[in-house]
Protein backbone atom coordinates (compact mmCIF):
# COMPACT_ATOMS: atom_id res chain seq x y z
CA UNK A 1 0.00 0.00 0.00
CA UNK A 2 1.84 3.08 -1.23
CA UNK A 3 -0.85 5.74 -1.42
CA UNK A 4 -0.83 8.75 0.87
CA UNK A 5 2.05 10.53 2.62
CA UNK A 6 3.41 7.33 4.14
CA UNK A 7 3.91 6.29 7.75
CA UNK A 8 5.50 8.52 10.39
CA UNK A 9 8.52 6.19 10.33
CA UNK A 10 9.03 7.11 6.66
CA UNK A 11 9.89 10.72 7.54
CA UNK A 12 13.65 11.09 7.09
CA UNK A 13 13.97 7.43 6.05
CA UNK A 14 15.80 8.11 2.76
CA UNK A 15 18.63 9.96 4.51
CA UNK A 16 18.74 7.47 7.38
CA UNK A 17 19.01 4.51 5.00
CA UNK A 18 21.90 6.09 3.10
CA UNK A 19 23.79 6.67 6.36
CA UNK A 20 23.01 3.39 8.16
CA UNK A 21 21.44 0.69 5.97
CA UNK A 22 23.57 -2.41 5.23
CA UNK A 23 26.43 -1.29 7.50
CA UNK A 24 27.33 -4.43 9.41
CA UNK A 25 30.42 -5.21 11.49
CA UNK A 26 29.86 -8.94 11.96
CA UNK A 27 30.28 -11.94 9.69
CA UNK A 28 26.85 -12.69 8.26
CA UNK A 29 25.73 -15.33 5.78
CA UNK A 30 22.17 -15.53 4.44
CA UNK A 31 20.57 -17.96 2.00
CA UNK A 32 17.03 -17.33 0.73
CA UNK A 33 14.79 -19.14 -1.70
CA UNK A 34 11.25 -18.32 -2.84
CA UNK A 35 8.60 -19.95 -4.99
CA UNK A 36 8.02 -18.32 -8.35
CA UNK A 37 4.34 -17.51 -7.74
CA UNK A 38 4.03 -13.83 -6.79
CA UNK A 39 0.53 -13.98 -5.26
CA UNK A 40 0.99 -17.10 -3.16
CA UNK A 41 3.92 -19.29 -2.21
CA UNK A 42 6.57 -20.11 0.37
CA UNK A 43 9.90 -18.46 1.11
CA UNK A 44 12.73 -19.89 3.23
CA UNK A 45 15.61 -17.86 4.68
CA UNK A 46 18.52 -19.20 6.73
CA UNK A 47 20.92 -16.78 8.48
CA UNK A 48 24.16 -17.38 10.36
CA UNK A 49 25.98 -14.59 12.22
CA UNK A 50 29.38 -14.67 13.91
CA UNK A 51 30.02 -11.79 16.30
CA UNK A 52 33.35 -12.02 18.07
CA UNK A 53 33.54 -15.58 19.35
CA UNK A 54 29.76 -16.05 19.48
CA UNK A 55 27.83 -17.66 16.64
CA UNK A 56 24.07 -17.42 16.25
CA UNK A 57 21.58 -18.30 13.57
CA UNK A 58 17.95 -18.53 12.63
CA UNK A 59 15.61 -20.05 10.08
CA UNK A 60 12.67 -18.03 8.79
CA UNK A 61 9.70 -19.27 6.76
CA UNK A 62 7.29 -16.96 4.96
CA UNK A 63 3.97 -18.13 3.54
CA UNK A 64 2.01 -15.78 1.31
CA UNK A 65 -1.54 -16.37 0.16
CA UNK A 66 -3.35 -13.55 -1.64
CA UNK A 67 -3.60 -10.69 0.91
CA UNK A 68 -2.18 -12.64 3.86
CA UNK A 69 1.44 -13.20 4.90
CA UNK A 70 2.63 -15.48 7.70
CA UNK A 71 6.24 -15.17 8.92
CA UNK A 72 7.74 -17.64 11.40
CA UNK A 73 11.34 -17.42 12.64
CA UNK A 74 13.17 -19.87 14.92
CA UNK A 75 16.61 -18.96 16.30
CA UNK A 76 19.38 -20.89 18.02
CA UNK A 77 18.12 -19.78 21.45
CA UNK A 78 14.79 -21.58 20.84
CA UNK A 79 12.83 -18.36 20.41
CA UNK A 80 9.91 -18.59 17.99
CA UNK A 81 8.76 -15.29 16.45
CA UNK A 82 5.55 -15.13 14.43
CA UNK A 83 4.13 -12.24 12.40
CA UNK A 84 0.72 -12.27 10.72
CA UNK A 85 0.05 -9.56 8.13
CA UNK A 86 -3.35 -9.00 6.52
CA UNK A 87 -3.84 -6.43 3.77
CA UNK A 88 -7.33 -5.04 3.06
CA UNK A 89 -8.87 -7.00 5.95
CA UNK A 90 -10.76 -3.73 6.19
CA UNK A 91 -10.75 -1.24 3.29
CA UNK A 92 -7.44 0.67 2.98
CA UNK A 93 -5.93 -1.03 6.03
CA UNK A 94 -3.07 -3.32 6.95
CA UNK A 95 -3.29 -5.40 10.14
CA UNK A 96 -0.15 -6.82 11.74
CA UNK A 97 -0.08 -9.22 14.70
CA UNK A 98 3.21 -10.33 16.26
CA UNK A 99 4.08 -12.60 19.16
CA UNK A 100 7.18 -14.38 20.41
CA UNK A 101 7.50 -17.63 22.33
CA UNK A 102 8.32 -18.46 25.10
CA UNK A 103 7.71 -14.78 26.04
CA UNK A 104 3.90 -14.86 26.22
CA UNK A 105 3.70 -11.13 27.04
CA UNK A 106 5.40 -10.07 23.80
CA UNK A 107 2.25 -10.04 21.66
CA UNK A 108 1.42 -6.87 19.73
CA UNK A 109 -1.41 -5.86 17.44
CA UNK A 110 -1.09 -2.99 14.97
CA UNK A 111 -3.57 -1.51 12.50
CA UNK A 112 -2.46 0.88 9.72
CA UNK A 113 -4.92 2.99 7.75
CA UNK A 114 -3.92 4.57 4.43
CA UNK A 115 -5.69 7.47 2.74
CA UNK A 116 -4.68 9.63 -0.20
CA UNK A 117 -3.75 12.50 2.13
CA UNK A 118 -3.35 10.86 5.55
CA UNK A 119 -2.02 7.75 7.27
CA UNK A 120 -2.84 6.61 10.79
CA UNK A 121 -1.55 3.73 12.90
CA UNK A 122 -2.59 2.29 16.25
CA UNK A 123 -0.68 -0.45 18.07
CA UNK A 124 -1.11 -2.06 21.46
CA UNK A 125 0.74 -4.70 23.42
CA UNK A 126 -1.29 -7.81 24.22
CA UNK A 127 -0.57 -8.10 27.92
CA UNK A 128 -1.94 -6.98 31.28
CA UNK A 129 -0.05 -3.66 31.19
CA UNK A 130 -0.41 -2.56 27.57
CA UNK A 131 1.32 0.42 26.03
CA UNK A 132 -0.68 2.14 23.32
CA UNK A 133 1.22 3.62 20.36
CA UNK A 134 -0.48 6.08 18.03
CA UNK A 135 0.88 7.90 14.99
CA UNK A 136 -0.49 10.00 12.19
CA UNK A 137 0.82 11.64 9.03
CA UNK A 138 -0.91 14.10 6.73
CA UNK A 139 0.31 15.67 3.53
CA UNK A 140 0.23 15.95 -0.24
CA UNK A 141 2.53 16.77 -3.18
CA UNK A 142 5.67 15.61 -1.34
CA UNK A 143 4.96 17.46 1.91
CA UNK A 144 4.32 15.34 5.02
CA UNK A 145 3.71 16.32 8.65
CA UNK A 146 3.45 13.67 11.33
CA UNK A 147 3.49 12.88 15.02
CA UNK A 148 3.56 9.79 17.21
CA UNK A 149 3.02 9.09 20.90
CA UNK A 150 3.23 6.14 23.27
CA UNK A 151 0.99 5.94 26.34
CA UNK A 152 1.37 3.57 29.30
CA UNK A 153 -2.20 2.69 30.26
CA UNK A 154 -1.14 1.31 33.65
CA UNK A 155 1.07 4.19 34.82
CA UNK A 156 -1.05 6.80 33.05
CA UNK A 157 1.90 8.58 31.44
CA UNK A 158 3.45 9.10 28.02
CA UNK A 159 6.41 6.89 27.17
CA UNK A 160 7.29 8.89 24.05
CA UNK A 161 6.11 11.72 21.83
CA UNK A 162 7.78 12.72 18.58
CA UNK A 163 6.97 15.00 15.65
CA UNK A 164 8.41 15.52 12.19
CA UNK A 165 8.06 17.18 8.81
CA UNK A 166 9.50 16.25 5.44
CA UNK A 167 9.58 17.64 1.91
CA UNK A 168 10.30 15.13 -0.85
CA UNK A 169 11.01 15.93 -4.49
CA UNK A 170 12.36 13.71 -7.30
CA UNK A 171 15.86 15.12 -6.85
CA UNK A 172 15.94 15.77 -3.09
CA UNK A 173 14.48 15.04 0.33
CA UNK A 174 14.62 17.16 3.50
CA UNK A 175 13.26 16.39 6.96
CA UNK A 176 13.24 17.67 10.54
CA UNK A 177 12.33 15.36 13.44
CA UNK A 178 11.92 16.20 17.13
CA UNK A 179 12.19 13.01 19.22
CA UNK A 180 12.98 11.63 22.69
CA UNK A 181 10.24 13.77 24.27
CA UNK A 182 11.67 16.91 22.73
CA UNK A 183 15.28 16.25 23.72
CA UNK A 184 16.70 15.37 20.29
CA UNK A 185 16.37 17.43 17.11
CA UNK A 186 17.52 15.81 13.86
CA UNK A 187 17.58 17.57 10.50
CA UNK A 188 18.70 15.92 7.27
CA UNK A 189 18.95 16.72 3.58
CA UNK A 190 19.55 14.25 0.75
CA UNK A 191 20.24 15.27 -2.84
CA UNK A 192 20.40 13.03 -5.89
CA UNK A 193 23.24 14.28 -8.07
CA UNK A 194 22.08 12.59 -11.27
CA UNK A 195 18.79 11.58 -12.84
CA UNK A 196 19.18 7.78 -12.59
CA UNK A 197 19.82 8.33 -8.86
CA UNK A 198 23.14 6.49 -8.99
CA UNK A 199 24.95 9.24 -7.10
CA UNK A 200 23.66 10.96 -3.97
CA UNK A 201 24.93 13.02 -1.04
CA UNK A 202 23.37 13.50 2.39
CA UNK A 203 24.00 15.72 5.40
CA UNK A 204 22.49 15.26 8.85
CA UNK A 205 22.82 17.23 12.07
CA UNK A 206 21.60 15.98 15.43
CA UNK A 207 21.24 18.19 18.50
CA UNK A 208 20.74 16.70 21.98
CA UNK A 209 19.51 19.51 24.23
CA UNK A 210 20.07 17.74 27.57
CA UNK A 211 23.82 17.41 26.96
CA UNK A 212 24.36 20.30 24.49
CA UNK A 213 25.88 17.75 22.12
CA UNK A 214 25.89 18.18 18.35
CA UNK A 215 26.64 15.46 15.81
CA UNK A 216 27.13 16.33 12.16
CA UNK A 217 27.29 13.51 9.62
CA UNK A 218 27.81 13.54 5.85
CA UNK A 219 27.45 10.59 3.52
CA UNK A 220 27.68 9.67 -0.14
CA UNK A 221 26.34 7.00 -2.45
CA UNK A 222 27.97 6.13 -5.77
CA UNK A 223 27.02 3.34 -8.17
CA UNK A 224 30.21 2.25 -9.91
CA UNK A 225 28.21 0.08 -12.33
CA UNK A 226 24.78 -1.59 -12.33
CA UNK A 227 26.12 -4.33 -10.02
CA UNK A 228 28.36 -2.39 -7.62
CA UNK A 229 27.75 0.52 -5.27
CA UNK A 230 29.91 2.31 -2.71
CA UNK A 231 28.70 4.23 0.35
CA UNK A 232 30.69 6.40 2.75
CA UNK A 233 29.92 8.42 5.88
CA UNK A 234 31.88 10.66 8.22
CA UNK A 235 30.85 12.53 11.37
CA UNK A 236 32.44 15.32 13.37
CA UNK A 237 33.60 12.83 16.03
CA UNK A 238 36.00 11.28 13.51
CA UNK A 239 34.04 8.09 12.78
CA UNK A 240 34.56 7.15 9.12
CA UNK A 241 32.47 4.38 7.59
CA UNK A 242 32.67 2.77 4.17
CA UNK A 243 30.66 0.09 2.42
CA UNK A 244 30.94 -1.78 -0.86
CA UNK A 245 28.08 -3.88 -2.19
CA UNK A 246 28.33 -6.11 -5.25
CA UNK A 247 25.63 -8.24 -6.85
CA UNK A 248 27.32 -11.56 -7.66
CA UNK A 249 24.28 -12.70 -9.60
CA UNK A 250 20.61 -11.73 -9.58
CA UNK A 251 19.58 -10.95 -5.98
CA UNK A 252 22.77 -12.52 -4.54
CA UNK A 253 24.70 -9.71 -2.85
CA UNK A 254 28.12 -9.50 -1.20
CA UNK A 255 28.54 -6.61 1.26
CA UNK A 256 31.80 -5.50 2.88
CA UNK A 257 31.65 -2.65 5.39
CA UNK A 258 33.95 -1.08 7.92
CA UNK A 259 34.22 1.76 10.41
CA UNK A 260 37.39 3.60 11.43
CA UNK A 261 38.02 6.06 14.24
CA UNK A 262 40.25 8.69 12.64
CA UNK A 263 40.95 10.22 16.06
CA UNK A 264 42.21 6.94 17.50
CA UNK A 265 44.14 5.24 14.70
CA UNK A 266 45.79 2.88 17.20
CA UNK A 267 42.46 1.08 17.65
CA UNK A 268 41.48 -1.78 15.38
CA UNK A 269 38.81 -0.86 12.80
CA UNK A 270 35.42 -2.57 12.77
CA UNK A 271 35.04 -4.68 9.65
CA UNK A 272 32.05 -6.74 8.64
CA UNK A 273 31.28 -9.18 5.84
CA UNK A 274 27.77 -10.07 4.69
CA UNK A 275 26.78 -12.49 1.95
CA UNK A 276 23.13 -12.86 0.93
CA UNK A 277 22.34 -15.58 -1.61
CA UNK A 278 18.98 -15.96 -3.35
CA UNK A 279 19.16 -18.92 -5.75
Structure commentary:
The chain has 279 residues and is mainly beta. The chain is built from one helix and 19 strands. The chain has a 19-stranded mixed barrel. The longest helix has 8 residues, at 13-20. The model has no long low-confidence stretch (mean pLDDT 92).
Write the topology of this structure.
Elements (H helix, E strand, L loop, with lengths): L12 H8 L6 E8 L5 E12 L2 E12 L2 E8 L4 E8 L5 E9 L6 E7 L3 E8 L5 E10 L2 E10 L4 E13 L2 E8 L4 E9 L6 E10 L4 E13 L2 E8 L3 E11 L2 E10 L8 E8 L2
Parallel strand pairs: 1-19
Antiparallel strand pairs: 1-2, 2-3, 3-4, 4-5, 5-6, 6-7, 7-8, 8-9, 9-10, 10-11, 11-12, 12-13, 13-14, 14-15, 15-16, 16-17, 17-18, 18-19
